[in-house]
Amino acid sequence: MTAAAVPVIRTATDVIASELTTDTLIQLAERQIGAIHVRGYYPTDVAAAVAEKAINHPALGHYHKQHTSSVGRVYMPHIDTKWDADLTKKYHDAALPAIADVRQMFHPYLSPVDRIRLELQELWPAGANLLRLRKRACFVGAFRVFQPNTSEFYPHNDAIDQETDAPEIEGVLNQLVANIYLQVPEQGGNLQLWLREPTPDETEIILDVEGLDPKTVEPPVHEIHPAAGDLIIFSPRMLHAVTPGQGEHRVGAAAFIASKGRDEPLVYWS
What is the full per-residue pLDDT of the chain (270 aa) written as tens digits? Predict the structure, then answer.
């Protein structure tokens, strides 16, 4: 392999910011920092009530790949469209009704994903909008439900260009994810961050089974135990994982965010 053909594995610094501002958002998108962790972002009493609704929601299903199938999610995320035309149509058909249902679960309070959507519009230099793929609206605001003692995410990454070739994703430079934690067990349920993209060989495994054997990778740079009400934003294009929680469900609301640079609006989806 020539030097020119060696793949570039992008990394981020290990700095974690404690506030969501225009500066920290730009720094995160440009990988000058590794994450933003805002403690107490959302009221814990409202979060706890909605966590219980998510755990018992009739639309609670599970991710479709081997190493994610133990994790529940309320409404289909885009990754589960699996490049299938019928599933993609189902996803888009359900997107706006699902957004409305999630919003109603928090009523009369502002949902945490609606809050982060508004703040992205206000803080990013070019604003932010709901992602549309082939001019069809995407869902945003998925709940992730980790069962006690058994559910976990193995080290993996997420990238919208591995899920669709829709023209709207052309020019994406980085992808972020905003997680707002509604319920977290006292032990476990930790977020692990490696702050590097997977190698090509690792990517092949992740695309097959959605996760690497933890014994095959080095220890993470950060291991964070979030509290209920916390917001953590990082780049899921880099390796990350979630450890099993002990004795209690771990429930969060999430939104992916794509950046095409400071002069283009952010877009968000689930």
Answer: 333 344 557 788 999 999 999 999 999 999 999 999 999 999 999 999 999 999 999 999 988 666 677 899 999 999 999 999 999 999 999 999 999 999 999 999 999 999 999 999 999 999 999 999 999 999 999 999 999 998 999 999 999 999 999 999 999 999 999 999 999 999 999 999 999 999 999 999 999 888 999 999 999 999 999 999 999 999 999 999 999 999 999 999 999 999 999 999 999 999
pTM (2 d.p.): 0.94
User: What is the distance between the alpha carbons of residues 227 and 210, in angstroms, rounded to a whole number?
Assistant: 26
**Residues 108-138: b if buried by 16+ CB within 10 A, e if exposed:** ebebbbbbbbebbeebbeeebebbebeebeb
Q: Rounded CA gap, 120 and 113, in Å?
A: 10
Peptide bond into 108 cis (omega under 30): yes
- The token pair that represents 238 in the structure block: 């880099």
The span from the CA of 200 to the CA of 170, in Å, is 21
CB crowding 172-194: b at 16 or more within 10 Å, else e: bebbbbbbbbbbbbeebbbbbbb
